[in-house]
Design goal:
Length: 352
């Protein structure tokens, strides 16, 4: 009895204020230091801890080395901190780390090899940051990664080879970003991703999106949306944002001809919506404001004063082929030249 009391005393002395020790559902020793005001790993935590929870703390940097004393570390949760960047490492500093949670931090950019310090990651959570660019090599070395959550960031471009280092990927969250185009053969390294979340992106339904359209046709049942913990299969959640006449339509509901006829109207190279060449398009497009060249005869272009009136209604009524072409050309030209306030309620045709 005395010994028991003594042990209790020792444990209480060692316990770190703000943290409490328990076990996770798989009985791993865990320290829960939620909302305890820490900006670094406190001293005194048991080095056999496998799960370290620091959500809602004040970490303003992520030092891989500061977790090195936990030599069997399995999970680190830094959700809702102020981490602005992650630092690539030449060596695997945390070779046992499997789950890393960095949601709701201040990340804006993930350099090549961002997670090389922890090559055994199976789950990586990066939702609700401000990540606006990724590279082909951001996730290199993560050959065990199964879950990657990039929900609610500001990603505009999917690097062509981004998935190549991820042969084990099973769940990929990309909802609520600013993605317009999926590179051709983006999934070529691992065709089937069983849980794929692509909704709430401004998909640009031009010819460049034909790869995604075909992919959705093949893997329709793998496309999901989630609402809290509930998920449901919903391939129709991937909808066009532009051009106007496809806005709101599920990408899957379109045919190749729908996508490709749009793009020939919109841009000389068929990739008007590809955000990667804005400079070229800005300089070349205004030089040829009216690019309609295909067969149906075109009625005389309206004068500029009629344009603003027509633009309010043109998308809500049935228009003839030639009207489409005339307006498309005018809108495209005016968006790029900035010389006409078209007020089309649709900013997405501008490449910014
Ligand atoms: C950690 O502790 C907080 C209270 O301090 C609690 O709300 C939270 O559910 C705990 N986390 C886990 C995963 O048990
Ligand atoms: C990714 O790699 C491809 C193919 O090598 C290259 O064309 C592309 O520019 C790279 N993208 C980025 C964002 O680095």
């Amino acid at each position: 009895m005395q010994l028991f009391l003594l042990l209790c005393r020792v444990v209480m002395v060692v316990a770190v204020t703000g943290c409490h020790r328990d076990r996770d559902k798989d009985h791993r020793p865990r320290e829960n230091c939620t909302a305890a005001g820490f900006s670094t790993v406190p001293v005194g935590l048991d080095s056999t801890t496998k799960v370290l929870l620091f959500p809602k703390n004040l970490f303003s940097s992520l030092s891989w080395a500061s977790f090195q004393i936990f030599d069997e570390i399995y999970e680190i949760d830094l959700t809702e901190n102020k981490v602005p960047e992650v630092t690539p490492s030449g060596t695997p500093i945390l070779p046992t780390l499997s789950v890393l949670r960095l949601g709701s931090n201040r990340l804006t950019f993930l350099p090549d090899g961002s997670f090389s310090a922890c090559p055994a990651l199976t789950e990586l959570y990066l939702e609700n940051n401000a990540i606006d660019s990724l590279s082909n090599h951001t996730f290199s070395g993560l050959d065990k990664l199964e879950i990657l959550d990039l929900t609610s960031n500001r990603i505009t471009v999917l690097p062509a080879l981004m998935l190549h280092p991820l042969p084990a990927i099973e769940t990929l969250y990309l909802e609520n970003n600013k993605i317009r185009v999926m590179p051709d053969n983006w999934f070529s390294q691992k065709e089937e991703v069983p849980y794929l979340y692509l909704s709430a992106n401004p998909w640009a339904c031009s010819c460049s999106l034909d790869y995604l359209r075909r992919y959705l046709d093949d893997y329709e049942l793998n496309v999901y949306v989630r609402d809290g913990p509930d998920i449901k299969s919903d391939a129709d959640s991937v909808v066009c944002d532009s051009p106007h006449w496809h806005q709101g339509k599920p990408v899957m509901s379109l045919e190749e001809s729908d996508l490709c006829s749009s793009s020939t109207e919109l841009g000389p190279s068929g990739d008007f919506h590809q955000p990667s060449h804005p400079a070229t398009q800005r300089t070349t497009t205004p030089a040829t404001p009216v690019t309609a060249t295909s067969s149906p005869p075109i009625s005389p272009p309206p004068t500029l004063s009629t344009v603003s009136v027509e633009l309010y209604t043109v998308y809500h009524r049935v228009v003839t082929w030639s009207w489409y072409q005339t307006f498309t050309s005018l809108i495209e030209w005016s968006d790029h030249s900035g010389s006409l306030d078209t007020r089309t309620e649709e900013p997405s045709a501008v490449c910014t």
